[in-house]
Amino acid sequence: CAIKKDRNVISCEDVKEPTNTADADIEEAVTTSRPLAVRGQGNYMYLDDGREILDSCGGAAVACLGHGVQEVINAMMSQAADISYVPWGFFENRAKLALAQWLSRSSGGHFQKTYITCSGSEAVEGAMKLAREYFVWKGQPQRVNYISREESYHGITIGSLSLGGHLSRRAPFEDLLLSKIYRIPACNAYRQQRQGETDTAYVARKALELENMFQKLGPETVVAFIAEPVVGAASGCIPSVPGYIKAMKAICDKHGALFILDEVMCGMGRTGTTHAWEQEGVMPDIQTIGKGLAGGYQPVSAILVGKKVFQEMEMKNATFTHGHTYQDHPIGCAAALQVQQIIQRDNLLSNVQIQGSLLAKLLKEKLGGHPHVGDIRGRGLFWGIEFVEDKETKRPFEPTLQISHRVHDAAMAPPNNLAIYYGQGCAGDKKGDHVMIMPAYNIDR
Ligand code: PLP
Q: CA-CA distance, 405 to 196, in Å (whole number)?
């Protein structure tokens, strides 16, 4: 579509039909067995064979407004017409400033600086570096160790992959991964909480694991602890037990280390509040977001810098030694801001809570009694189903059976035509494989 001078009017008159040559090229280029998605509208995706797929996961929890929202498309086109690229190192751009302001306000002013990146992995990689540099500014260069958790996922670049405990994604690169990262066990009530153990007692046990790791490394050597408040891709929507996040933050504070929350998947409304930590009663020193930030309309993620880190930066007049070509990209920022404004205007977080409760109820009612459904857990519109071979002992299926792939394939096959997300081989024998259901925030009953 061409955008006219009056930037709200879009004309599709100039749209060129693809030529036959282009179609032929595409056909030749399709070398995988993945279906070819050609259009998206609302909660549906359309394949080249005409099938209509209910998108119940938005990829990996990305498409939080569904597909084809014209206001977001208009915002992107309007920004592209104004200026489509602004080199961040030399200029500011309005879309970035407005988005940063929105994000700061979403935290009551706690986040005082924002770096807009393009993927969750980049945001996490940047957060790792920022945390380290903060201690260089503070004159504590001996802080070099990071603590993360098993059964977690933080991204695919070397740094972020090193933090994560997603075993099958780490496997080919294990020998290359960073050495100063130490993982403690996950917070996984289904697998770890003992019969009769209260949440308080379980949290105390978890806190001790972190404390012990601090002591083992030497508390003065730790840069940061990083966690997902609700674990996504590696585990299938596992929420932290009440009080866990607060307890972990308190230990970091005690030892002067930073507390980083990775909300790339569970953040920006997915769990029913803009930030998942709003339900935990603590704020992170640094936070990463992505996916739902721009709902997939542009590749956008961000590093959000809390007061403590920002104030040190200001005091030392320091600059974060970081930055890449597409940082603060104006079209990405315009898309993200529009997505967030729609979520706010249409009161979609309340819909996430309402439809999320319904989804949880139905999943438990319909699937809870299934002999191979071990656990159904989640928050908001972020729900995971873990499969087990033996419900009593919680023994997972043999990985070679590829249960979650098969469930995914069955869901996708006609007449179901349902897209769900699957995860397998993420946590070894520590858990079974899972599927995840994460529809758009405007999904209806
Ligand atoms: N952090 C978390 C919690 C994620 O779930 C993901 C992706 O699933 C990432 C980081 C990496 O994001 P990306 O795939 O956009 O690089």
A: 34
